[in-house]
Specification:
Blueprint: H1 3-16, E1 20-25, H2 28-32, H3 35-48, E2 55-60, E3 72-76, E4 83-86, H4 91-105
Parallel strand pairs: 1-2
Antiparallel strand pairs: 1-3, 3-4
Helix pairs in contact: 3-4
The structure holds FE2/S2 (inorganic) cluster (FES).
FE2/S2 (inorganic) cluster is lined by residues 25, 27-30, 62-66, 69, 71.
Length: 123
């Protein structure tokens, strides 16, 4: 495989990716503390809120903080979310996390431009 083929694969992957990706650690440490239920709730909340075009869920391996699991990392291209690690995530918190991400996305990144105030000068 040459470099142009690799660049094409990278470009296709960038196009395919959704704006927000939530990665849930499903390695043994986090799995033993309930990451399966956390991941399931993430997927359920995305589907229930019709956020399929906005958020995707993935599994990742051990991130090295096994004692703080289940761990979830949110990665987004937008400044407001950027990259955030959450520890000791419960299934209920996973549902709330999806709702919070979706609500943040509804806030415009650029605030409305104030309209100039027009005065009418009488002579
Ligand atoms: S098993 Fe999840 S951080 Fe190690």
């Amino acid at each position: 495989m040459d470099i142009s083929a690799l660049r094409q694969i990278a470009q296709q992957e960038q196009i395919r990716q959704k704006p927000v990706r939530i990665n849930c650690c499903t390695a043994s440490g986090c799995a033993s503390s309930g990451s399966g239920a956390v991941k399931k709730n993430l997927e359920t909340a995305i589907k229930a809120g019709c956020h399929d075009e906005l958020i995707e869920v993935g599994s990742v391996g051990c991130m090295g903080f096994c004692g703080r699991g289940p761990l979830v990392i949110v990665e987004a291209s937008e400044r407001q979310l950027h990259r955030q690690l959450y520890a000791n995530v419960t299934p209920e918190a996973a549902t709330s996390l999806v709702k919070a991400i979706a609500s943040i996305r509804l806030i415009p990144l650029i605030p409305p431009i104030p309209q100039p105030h027009h005065h009418t000068w009488s002579k």
